[in-house]
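Student: Hello, beginner here. Can you help me understand the protein record under this note? Any guidance would be welcome.
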Amino acid sequence: MTHAPLKALAVIALLPAAMAQAQDSMSLDTSGDGLVSIEEMQAVHSDISTEQFLEMDSDGDGLLNADELAAASEAGLLPTSEG
């Protein structure tokens, strides 16, 4: 017996939460360019230091894209509430 259908259902069940989390993270993007700058991040999360931001910025471009925000959230690097 295969567990593939159960795994698929689990993924489908988690999808809305993941989408909401990504949407919440991208709400930090006040300029609408699809990226989050340190200024945009600190406007919402004033406790995020430059060092913490750079830790989230895996490609080193000084901006966070949706993938970097998702990874930071999964790693517990992003605050869960506004601060």
In short: Residues 4-26 form the longest helix (23 residues). Residues 17-22 have pLDDT under 50 and may be disordered. The two ends are 48 Å apart (CA to CA).
